[in-house]
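Contributing new records

If you add data, match the layout below exactly. Sequence lines come first and carry their own label; structure lines follow with theirs. Keep one chain per record. Anything else will be rejected by the validation script.
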Amino acid sequence: MPRLLRYTLLGLLIAIGLIALLIYSLTWRPGAKEALPVSCNTPAPSLVPGQALKVMTWNVQYLAGKRYVFWNDLAAGDDERPTPEDMAFSLDEVARVIRDEQPDIVLLQELDDGAKASDYQNQFKLLQDRVTDLYPCTAQAFDWKADFVPEPHIYGSVGRQLATLSRYRIEHAERLQLPVAPANLISRQFKPKNALLVTYLPVSDGGQMAVLNTHLDRATQLDDTLQTQVTAVAKVLDKFESRGTPWLIGGDFNLLPLGQYQRLPAEQRTPYSADTPLHVLWDKYPMIPTNNEASGIDRAQWLTHYPNDPGLNGPDRTVDYLFYSPRIKRVEARVRQDDTLRISDHLPVIARFLLPAAP
């Protein structure tokens, strides 16, 4: 082999190695199951069998508000980041709604930490400072993290979290990795890594309750990612149910309930499908809102998503839900719409339950 060719190949191998090392150093590779730290800044009570429990789930859209059409909202969207003033307003509004509702457990999605687009704020810490008197115990987990993403609209760091706040003691927490969207080996390293944030709350009779928080993939085209993610979620829930552990899960599932696909205009249906993978969960477990609520005569009351689309003047679909063990009894539920339409592109889903009584 000519010397020049040998040097060229050697140089190419070195360049590939350096690129691989750079990508490795810039990105994040979580394990399939990881223990998470739990923060309880003051002693918190344990749950009691048979008690009422109020829960809220809310995707707060990294406190960006509703004055933008971001580059990943629509093909015509060109906004890349909210202003500090808009994020400050949304932070105050999220805290206001939480303090007004005072749920026992709050499940939040899309809180930024160290992301260029949100001025490197630790949004969970900022919010926690405003409600720490209500929620002594917290846990959080990243579902997207990288020191640098070479996407032109990002061109910097990303850091997005799930966060769970609890009035009751959290004994321990863990992060469970969900299947990721198909992509080539390099681009996959920079993509979101959807997960379950699982917190375990002790019950005074010696048992425990599992509370799960999630944000499933925001698909841009039809593939089997959401199907595999929902199936993975169902397997986790099935394990809790088989053990007799009461559980509930809330979050942004990015999937429609029965009947809503047909009601969306054709241009709004991508990437949904008429045969939603969500049936894997509702076939087994109760859901809030139910399919009858989300597609019935009062369906407008159960819409949870207000896309950043100038062609829309309000929420037009349901993608945020609470599922729960049949051992738990639903008392009441609603979507808070009247004063939350300008805070996020999602609306909070709120429900009250009764926990199983002591045997």
